[in-house]
Amino acid sequence: MNKKEKYNKTLEILKDTYGEIGKANPADNLNDLLDILHSEFESFSWLGFYMFNDLKDTLVLGKYIGGPATKYIPINSGVCGKCAREESSIVVPDVSKFEGHIACSLTTKSEICVPIHINGEFVGLLDIDSNLLNNFDEIDKKYLERIVNQIGR
C-alpha cells in the first residue's frame, strides 16, 4: 500500500469511527488519531501532540506514542516552536540540519509538525518523528493537514 492509500485508509477509519469527522470530542479524536497513524505508518517512530499553555508562550506535551519526550517547548525553540510561531506545517527532511532542533531521541532523522485549529483557534500541533532521513514530504503534509483540520472542526 502506498502512502496516499494509507492516508486515505486513515481517513476512512476515522470516518467509520466518528461518522462525520470532527463531530466527536476533539480530544478523543486526537488520541485515536495517534493510535491509527502509529498502526498504519511503521516509519513513524514518535507521534504526539503539543498544546499551548495559558500564556501561549510554551507548548506542553499531551498524548504521545514513542519514547521519552520533551515535556515543555518554548515557542522560540525547535521545529515545534517554529510551527507554533508561523502557524504552518513544517517538514524537516534531516533534523541534523535544522538549527535549534530539540533532540528527544538520538535516532530521530526527520520530522513533520502540523498546526491544530479547533473552532478556528490555533491550539497546538501534531509532531511526528521518523528514524529515517527524508521520511516526510508534501504528501504527508497535505494529508496530515487535511486529517487534523477535519478533526479540529
What do these coordinates show?
With 153 residues, the protein is of the alpha+beta class. The protein has a single domain (3-151), classed as GAF domain (Beta-Lactamase, 2-Layer Sandwich), CATH 3.30.450. Helices cover 35% and strands 26% of the residues. It has 4 helices and 6 strands. The chain has helices at 3-18, 26-40, 78-86, 138-151; strands at residues 46-52, 58-65, 72-74, 90-92, 110-118, 121-130. A 6-stranded antiparallel β-sheet has the order 3-2-1-6-5-4, with helices on both faces. The protein is globular, with a radius of gyration of 14 Å. The mean pLDDT is 88.
Overview features:
6 strands; six-stranded antiparallel β-sheet; 153 residues; 35% helix
Report a brief summary of the structure.
By secondary structure, this protein is α+β, with helices and mostly antiparallel strands. Helix content is 35%, strand content 26%.
User: Strand order, biggest sheet?
Assistant: 3-2-1-6-5-4
Number of helices: 4
- How many angstroms does the end-to-end distance come to? 29 Å
- The residue ranges in which pLDDT falls below 50 over 5 or more consecutive positions are none
Give the name of the CATH superfamily.
Answer: GAF domain
SSE pattern, N- to C-terminal: HHEEEHEEEH
Radius of gyration: 14 Å
CATH class: Alpha Beta
Mean pLDDT: 88
Derived from helix and strand composition plus strand pairing, the structural class reads alpha+beta
Taken from the alpha-carbon principal axes, the silhouette is globular
CATH fold call = Beta-Lactamase
Please provide the count of β strands.
6
| Largest sheet composition | 6 strands, antiparallel
Number of domains: 1
CATH architecture grouping: 2-Layer Sandwich
Helix content: 25-40%
Strand content: 25-35%
